[in-house]
Amino acid sequence: MLKTEINELLTHTGPGTPMGELFRRYWIPALHAEELPENDCPPVRVKILSERLIAFRDSEGKYGLIDEFCAHRGVSLWFGRVEERGIRCAYHGWKYDVTGQCLEVPSEPENSNFCSKVRLTAYPLVKVGDILWTYMGDREQQPGLPEFEFAQVPAEQTYTSKRWQESNWLQALEGGIDSSHVSWLHSGGLKSDPLFKGTKGNEYNLNDLRPFFEVAEADGGLFVGARRNAENGNYYWRITPYVMPSFTLVPPRGDHPVHGHFWVPIDDENTWVYTFDYHPTRSLTPEERQAMIEGHGVHSRNIPGTYRPMENKDVDYLIDREAQKRGETFSGVRGIAQQDASLQESMGPIVDRTKERLVSSDTGIIKARQKLRKAVEALRDEGVMPPGVDPAHHRVRSAAIVLPQEQSFIEACRDDLRARPGVAHTSV
Amino acid sequence: MTTPQRPILLNSCARAATAEEARFRIDRPIGGRAALVLALDDEAADVVDRVAEKPWRGARFFHAGDVPFSQLEAELADADVAIMIATADADGEVAAALARACAERGIMTAGLILGEQLEVAGAVSALRPYARNLMVTSDEDDVAEVLTALRA
Ligand code: FES
Ligand SMILES: [Fe+2]
């Protein structure tokens, strides 16, 4: 349960809101790199943190992310022409570069320097891995670029997809922290999904539906450990890292690639979910890559040409009651991603957390909310830099491991929970 | 796959998940959680005393050292969650006894261990078998935070 004021504090991310200010201290995904595939390609409309922007890639390959609307009379620059190191408004031809600087106002005399006084808001846009990242905060405070392992490994070892979720960012993120739903909602996938099936860990998962949970603090956020019984009195641990504000990693299964998500507020009622799969030490196989493209694992199957999943709310998520009855899917919805999204969207655009009845297995969620609230308040009241801004905090890994009863996962797995280039992940 | 059936009203399909439709969610008082909060050591007892001063719905607070175990057992009769609060010197034996009593009665157990990870490692392994949900935290506010979240 959260009080109304706290629920609003955590869920509203527009300009000037405290949570919005927190998000503006981080590099966050703004686009999938495939959206701007070549120089001078068509511009893309982007809305994040409730700001409408236009992204483009100029003739020299520089990326720009600027105010969507022309300074002259407010036309959308989406109709603009991307040409000769800038984007030109379709209405009267004003032209801007990637820094938002106006380069030309054609109606002015040739020797006028009026254009130098016109500048649109612009944010940096930088490609790291398959993602174009932006930083929307105060330039003085701009941190180093993201160092998440999935975005650092060679291109053959990583794959990123993107989908639109019609709910507030926080309820989407909370699904990533709460691993207690996996043995229920995703039980079908553990048995059949090409990117999950056939590992020892799945057996532990399915044989013990009442995991114990242990939540520990990390420099950039949290580690949430879920333990189930293994053989000989040992424990099977699955450890989920959360890096603030909205990055989660799923614990691995066997030698399958590792996956995770970045949850980015579009506005208060919509979220971009960036979902990745990577292997720290080997290339993804063609079969794995194909399965990801087809929306297996934690990826979605999108309507061609869009980032909207086929299983969306307009079509009741294509719910298949017979598959539900047969036990192929627990909820009747196909695919892990939309199994999550369908439920999270059903909560309403911003779930009313004053009405929840949390139980103690929701401790991870309780702690994550508390960390967010404290970070928001510390930033607002004292200007304290929040956890997860420092790129060193990005270098975490998830892990799946069998440990003797008395061992603490946080100590036994100190190295396993750090990204170590060239070293395989710890997985069962 | 079955053919999706076309709903007759907006509220009979998934598109009813709008803010406007949220107005029609049934609103009625939500019950609390009868929590028994037990401090396992002296330092934890100080924290529990501070937390106990806030208004709670039905949470009851005890110090392991001050009450006979039989009284705790009696208190469990109408509890539905037992939350153990500990610091580095937590006594694993009380935790074990309480966990056994909870297991017999089907009562959920949780533990909050206050302190830096390294300092409280012993307490964590002492409590691990007995608390279904453990949180290790350096922030005392988490005790009240968890109780509030559980409507205790
Ligand atoms: S509105 Fe863009 S140039 Fe006139
Ligand atoms: Fe899920």
Task: Characterize the structure shown.
With 428 residues, chain A is an alpha+beta fold. Helix content of chain A is 21%, strand content 24%. Chain A has eleven helices and 19 strands. The longest helix of chain A has 20 residues, at 363-382. The two termini of chain A are 35 Å apart. In chain A, 53% of the residues are buried. Chain B has one domain (33-149): Tubulin/FtsZ, GTPase domain (Rossmann fold). Chain B is built from six helices and five strands. In chain B, helix 4 links the parallel strand 3 (81-86) and strand 4 (108-114). Chain B starts with 18 loop residues before the first helix and ends with a helix. The chains are: A alpha+beta (428), B alpha/beta (152). Chains A and B meet through strand 13, helix 8, helix 9 and helix 10 of A and helix 1, strand 4, helix 5, strand 5 and helix 6 of B. Strand 13 (212-217) of chain A pairs parallel with strand 5 of chain B. Bound molecules: FE2/S2 (inorganic) cluster and fe (ii) ion (FE2).
List keywords for this structure.
heterodimer; A: 428 residues; alpha+beta; eight-stranded antiparallel beta sheet; four-stranded antiparallel beta sheet; 11 helices; 19 strands; globular; B: alpha/beta; five-stranded parallel beta sheet; elongated; binds fe (ii) ion
What is the 3D shape of chain B? elongated
Ligands in the structure? FE2/S2 (inorganic) cluster, fe (ii) ion
Number of helices of chain B: 6
Secondary structure: number of strands of chain B: 5
What ranges of chain B have pLDDT less than 50 throughout 5 or more consecutive residues?
none
Biggest pleated sheet of chain A? 8 strands, antiparallel
Radius of gyration of chain B: 20 Å
CA-CA gap between termini of chain B = 45 Å
Number of strands of chain A: 19
**Helix/sheet category of chain A:** alpha+beta
The global form of chain A is globular
